[in-house]
């Protein structure tokens, strides 16, 4: 059972997650073009660039801002509306931190139905991630079909027979 999950489930799950996140991003970006813009004051701006506990590089622009919508004050922590990004860009993240300095007043886009959802700009869609997500999906489907046709077992036996 574990072999089936490893061969089929994990690649398929990763591919579907990346594909869905890109689709949601594109839909949200189109809807948000009609959302109202409000003035926001930047309260915090810092570039995180360090290794986490799993030795993966964490690269993120942390930008906090306050804004008022319909008489109520909110705090936002989303500098950019982003799609699925496998490889974050250091250049883009550092430009965000340089662009949004504490004390600056900028325009923020607010979701009228959920005013706590707000962002300052739309990040460019990662072309590499957009191409890789469908490729992972196709690979996951190919592994799924290969398993049911027995191709995987034949290749598995051929590989380990030579070792």
Structural summary, described in words:
With 163 residues, the protein is an alpha+beta fold. It has one domain. Helix content is 47%, strand content 28%. The protein has a 5-stranded antiparallel sheet. It has a two-stranded parallel sheet with strand order 4-7. Helix 1 packs antiparallel against helix 3.
**Roughly how many Å is the radius of gyration?**
21 Å
> How many domain modules?
1
Poorly predicted regions are none
Mean pLDDT: 78
How widely separated are the two ends?
24 Å
Annotation field: number of helices: 4
Q: Report the β-strand fraction as a percent range.
A: 25-35%
Biggest sheet, in brief?
Answer: 5 strands, antiparallel
Features:
single chain; about 160 residues; alpha+beta; five-stranded antiparallel beta sheet; two-stranded parallel ribbon; 4 helices; about 45% helix; elongated
Write the layout of secondary structure elements.
Blueprint: H1 2-32, E1 37-51, E2 57-69, E3 72-76, E4 80-81, H2 90-99, E5 105-110, E6 118-119, E7 121-122, H3 127-149, H4 151-162
Helix pairs in contact: 1-3
